[in-house]
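Hi C.,

You asked whether I'd gotten around to modeling the 234-residue construct. I have! Everything is below, sequence then structure, no commentary in between.
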Amino acid sequence: MNFYSLKLKLWDDSEIDRKSESPRVYPQANGGKIFNARGFLGINGKIHMTDYVDETPVFDYFYLYNLSSQREDDWILLDAYAFAGQNYPLIRGFLISEKFRQVLLSCKIADPSRFYKSKLMYKGEKIDYYIFHLAQDEWMNFHSHESAFYFDDKRIDVLIDSNASLKNLISDAKNQQKDLSMNLVLKDYADIFFFSQFNYVVSEMLKQKMESEGLKGISFTYLENVNFQFKFSA
Protein backbone atom coordinates (compact mmCIF):
# COMPACT_ATOMS: atom_id res chain seq x y z
CA MET A 1 0.00 0.00 0.00
CA ASN A 2 1.28 3.44 -0.93
CA PHE A 3 1.59 6.20 1.64
CA TYR A 4 2.22 9.91 1.24
CA SER A 5 3.54 12.77 3.31
CA LEU A 6 0.87 15.44 3.70
CA LYS A 7 2.04 19.03 4.07
CA LEU A 8 0.32 22.38 4.23
CA LYS A 9 1.11 24.60 1.27
CA LEU A 10 3.07 27.74 2.06
CA TRP A 11 2.17 29.81 -0.98
CA ASP A 12 0.09 29.97 -4.17
CA ASP A 13 2.11 29.77 -7.39
CA SER A 14 -0.83 31.14 -9.37
CA GLU A 15 -0.99 34.35 -7.29
CA ILE A 16 1.83 36.90 -7.45
CA ASP A 17 2.40 39.33 -4.61
CA ARG A 18 2.60 42.86 -6.00
CA LYS A 19 5.26 44.04 -3.56
CA SER A 20 7.65 41.09 -3.64
CA GLU A 21 6.77 39.93 -7.18
CA SER A 22 6.96 36.36 -5.84
CA PRO A 23 4.23 33.76 -5.21
CA ARG A 24 1.71 35.03 -2.68
CA VAL A 25 2.16 33.53 0.79
CA TYR A 26 -0.76 31.75 2.43
CA PRO A 27 -1.94 33.21 5.74
CA GLN A 28 -1.91 31.25 8.99
CA ALA A 29 -4.38 30.93 11.86
CA ASN A 30 -3.66 33.32 14.72
CA GLY A 31 -5.45 32.78 18.03
CA GLY A 32 -4.54 36.14 19.53
CA LYS A 33 -8.21 37.20 19.69
CA ILE A 34 -9.56 34.03 21.31
CA PHE A 35 -11.03 35.18 24.62
CA ASN A 36 -11.41 31.72 26.18
CA ALA A 37 -8.06 30.12 25.28
CA ARG A 38 -6.55 30.41 28.76
CA GLY A 39 -5.68 27.02 30.22
CA PHE A 40 -6.26 25.21 26.93
CA LEU A 41 -4.01 26.75 24.26
CA GLY A 42 -0.48 28.12 24.27
CA ILE A 43 2.78 26.81 25.69
CA ASN A 44 1.24 25.91 29.07
CA GLY A 45 -2.12 24.78 27.72
CA LYS A 46 -3.77 21.45 28.45
CA ILE A 47 -3.91 20.74 24.71
CA HIS A 48 -0.26 19.97 24.04
CA MET A 49 1.42 17.30 21.87
CA THR A 50 0.17 13.95 23.29
CA ASP A 51 -2.02 15.64 25.93
CA TYR A 52 -5.63 16.11 24.86
CA VAL A 53 -8.90 17.29 26.41
CA ASP A 54 -12.38 15.84 25.98
CA GLU A 55 -14.41 18.92 26.84
CA THR A 56 -13.52 22.40 25.62
CA PRO A 57 -15.34 25.62 24.84
CA VAL A 58 -15.69 26.78 21.25
CA PHE A 59 -12.47 28.68 20.61
CA ASP A 60 -13.75 32.03 19.35
CA TYR A 61 -12.00 33.16 17.21
CA PHE A 62 -8.95 32.58 15.00
CA TYR A 63 -8.09 35.16 12.37
CA LEU A 64 -5.87 34.92 9.29
CA TYR A 65 -2.41 36.38 9.68
CA ASN A 66 0.55 36.97 7.37
CA LEU A 67 3.67 36.04 9.28
CA SER A 68 6.00 37.88 6.88
CA SER A 69 4.23 41.24 6.95
CA GLN A 70 2.89 40.68 10.49
CA ARG A 71 -0.62 41.81 9.69
CA GLU A 72 -4.09 40.39 9.19
CA ASP A 73 -4.49 38.91 5.74
CA ASP A 74 -7.73 37.07 4.90
CA TRP A 75 -7.17 37.00 1.17
CA ILE A 76 -7.99 33.31 0.74
CA LEU A 77 -10.17 30.68 2.44
CA LEU A 78 -8.43 27.31 2.71
CA ASP A 79 -9.46 23.97 4.20
CA ALA A 80 -6.33 23.77 6.36
CA TYR A 81 -4.17 26.38 8.05
CA ALA A 82 -0.99 26.21 10.08
CA PHE A 83 -0.90 28.12 13.35
CA ALA A 84 1.00 31.34 14.05
CA GLY A 85 1.07 34.25 16.47
CA GLN A 86 -0.57 33.78 19.88
CA ASN A 87 -2.99 31.43 21.65
CA TYR A 88 -2.56 28.44 19.42
CA PRO A 89 -2.04 24.81 20.46
CA LEU A 90 1.44 23.29 20.39
CA ILE A 91 0.32 20.09 18.73
CA ARG A 92 0.64 17.88 15.72
CA GLY A 93 -2.29 19.21 13.80
CA PHE A 94 -3.80 22.27 12.17
CA LEU A 95 -7.00 24.30 11.82
CA ILE A 96 -9.40 22.62 9.40
CA SER A 97 -12.76 23.22 7.77
CA GLU A 98 -15.91 21.14 8.31
CA LYS A 99 -15.35 19.69 4.85
CA PHE A 100 -11.88 18.50 5.81
CA ARG A 101 -13.21 17.06 9.08
CA GLN A 102 -15.85 15.00 7.28
CA VAL A 103 -13.22 13.53 4.96
CA LEU A 104 -11.09 12.54 7.95
CA LEU A 105 -14.06 11.01 9.77
CA SER A 106 -14.72 8.76 6.78
CA CYS A 107 -11.33 7.08 7.33
CA LYS A 108 -9.30 5.60 10.15
CA ILE A 109 -7.53 8.27 12.20
CA ALA A 110 -4.64 7.35 14.48
CA ASP A 111 -5.83 7.14 18.07
CA PRO A 112 -6.05 9.29 20.11
CA SER A 113 -7.21 12.25 18.07
CA ARG A 114 -9.57 15.12 18.73
CA PHE A 115 -11.47 17.87 16.91
CA TYR A 116 -11.88 21.03 19.00
CA LYS A 117 -14.66 23.33 17.82
CA SER A 118 -13.43 26.76 16.81
CA LYS A 119 -14.38 29.84 14.84
CA LEU A 120 -12.43 31.41 11.98
CA MET A 121 -13.01 35.03 11.03
CA TYR A 122 -13.03 35.45 7.25
CA LYS A 123 -14.16 38.62 5.48
CA GLY A 124 -16.08 39.73 8.56
CA GLU A 125 -17.89 36.40 9.04
CA LYS A 126 -17.21 33.74 11.67
CA ILE A 127 -17.04 30.27 10.10
CA ASP A 128 -17.07 26.90 11.87
CA TYR A 129 -13.58 25.38 11.89
CA TYR A 130 -11.83 22.79 14.05
CA ILE A 131 -8.46 22.32 15.68
CA PHE A 132 -7.45 18.86 14.45
CA HIS A 133 -5.19 17.22 17.03
CA LEU A 134 -3.22 14.01 16.41
CA ALA A 135 -2.21 13.12 19.95
CA GLN A 136 -0.61 9.74 19.26
CA ASP A 137 2.95 9.01 20.36
CA GLU A 138 4.23 7.27 17.23
CA TRP A 139 7.05 5.52 19.05
CA MET A 140 4.57 3.75 21.33
CA ASN A 141 2.97 2.33 18.17
CA PHE A 142 6.29 1.44 16.52
CA HIS A 143 7.85 -2.04 16.58
CA SER A 144 11.55 -1.22 16.35
CA HIS A 145 12.88 -4.80 16.55
CA GLU A 146 10.66 -5.96 13.67
CA SER A 147 11.44 -3.01 11.40
CA ALA A 148 14.25 -3.19 8.86
CA PHE A 149 16.56 -0.63 7.24
CA TYR A 150 18.70 -0.95 4.12
CA PHE A 151 21.63 0.87 2.54
CA ASP A 152 21.71 0.16 -1.22
CA ASP A 153 19.38 -2.82 -0.68
CA LYS A 154 21.68 -4.34 1.96
CA ARG A 155 20.15 -4.68 5.40
CA ILE A 156 22.03 -2.84 8.12
CA ASP A 157 22.23 -3.72 11.79
CA VAL A 158 20.67 -0.71 13.48
CA LEU A 159 18.04 -0.09 16.14
CA ILE A 160 15.79 2.88 15.47
CA ASP A 161 13.61 3.78 18.44
CA SER A 162 13.43 7.58 18.52
CA ASN A 163 13.19 10.65 16.35
CA ALA A 164 16.88 11.38 16.95
CA SER A 165 18.05 7.92 15.87
CA LEU A 166 15.93 8.02 12.69
CA LYS A 167 17.16 11.52 11.86
CA ASN A 168 20.77 10.39 12.32
CA LEU A 169 20.23 7.37 10.06
CA ILE A 170 18.81 9.54 7.28
CA SER A 171 21.75 11.92 7.68
CA ASP A 172 24.26 9.04 7.57
CA ALA A 173 22.73 7.71 4.35
CA LYS A 174 22.98 11.14 2.76
CA ASN A 175 26.59 11.68 3.88
CA GLN A 176 27.63 8.22 2.66
CA GLN A 177 25.67 8.68 -0.58
CA LYS A 178 23.66 5.55 0.10
CA ASP A 179 20.10 4.81 -1.01
CA LEU A 180 18.13 4.34 2.19
CA SER A 181 15.02 2.18 2.21
CA MET A 182 13.02 1.01 5.19
CA ASN A 183 10.26 -1.32 6.25
CA LEU A 184 8.52 0.18 9.27
CA VAL A 185 6.29 -2.03 11.40
CA LEU A 186 3.52 -0.33 13.36
CA LYS A 187 0.98 -1.83 15.71
CA ASP A 188 -2.31 -0.29 14.56
CA TYR A 189 -3.38 0.67 11.05
CA ALA A 190 -4.48 4.23 10.32
CA ASP A 191 -5.18 6.24 7.17
CA ILE A 192 -3.58 9.29 8.76
CA PHE A 193 -0.91 9.38 11.45
CA PHE A 194 2.20 11.31 12.36
CA PHE A 195 5.65 9.78 12.05
CA SER A 196 8.94 11.51 12.76
CA GLN A 197 10.81 12.76 9.69
CA PHE A 198 7.80 12.09 7.45
CA ASN A 199 5.35 14.46 9.16
CA TYR A 200 1.69 13.65 8.50
CA VAL A 201 1.39 10.32 6.70
CA VAL A 202 -1.75 9.48 4.71
CA SER A 203 -2.87 6.39 2.84
CA GLU A 204 -3.56 6.25 -0.89
CA MET A 205 -7.28 5.99 -0.15
CA LEU A 206 -7.35 9.10 2.03
CA LYS A 207 -5.22 11.03 -0.45
CA GLN A 208 -7.70 10.22 -3.22
CA LYS A 209 -10.63 11.30 -1.05
CA MET A 210 -8.95 14.59 -0.22
CA GLU A 211 -8.23 15.22 -3.88
CA SER A 212 -11.73 14.28 -5.04
CA GLU A 213 -13.22 16.68 -2.47
CA GLY A 214 -10.92 19.43 -3.70
CA LEU A 215 -9.48 20.30 -0.31
CA LYS A 216 -7.48 23.52 -0.56
CA GLY A 217 -4.16 24.28 1.08
CA ILE A 218 -2.51 20.85 1.15
CA SER A 219 -0.01 18.91 -0.95
CA PHE A 220 1.26 15.33 -1.07
CA THR A 221 4.67 13.73 -1.59
CA TYR A 222 4.96 10.01 -2.30
CA LEU A 223 7.06 8.26 0.35
CA GLU A 224 9.42 6.43 -1.94
CA ASN A 225 11.47 3.59 -0.43
CA VAL A 226 9.35 3.65 2.73
CA ASN A 227 7.06 0.69 3.37
CA PHE A 228 4.64 0.57 6.29
CA GLN A 229 3.40 -2.71 7.75
CA PHE A 230 0.73 -2.99 10.42
CA LYS A 231 0.26 -5.71 13.01
CA PHE A 232 -3.45 -4.99 13.17
CA SER A 233 -5.28 -3.88 10.03
CA ALA A 234 -8.29 -1.59 9.81
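If it helps when you're writing up: The two ends are 13 Å apart (CA to CA).

Thanks,
B.
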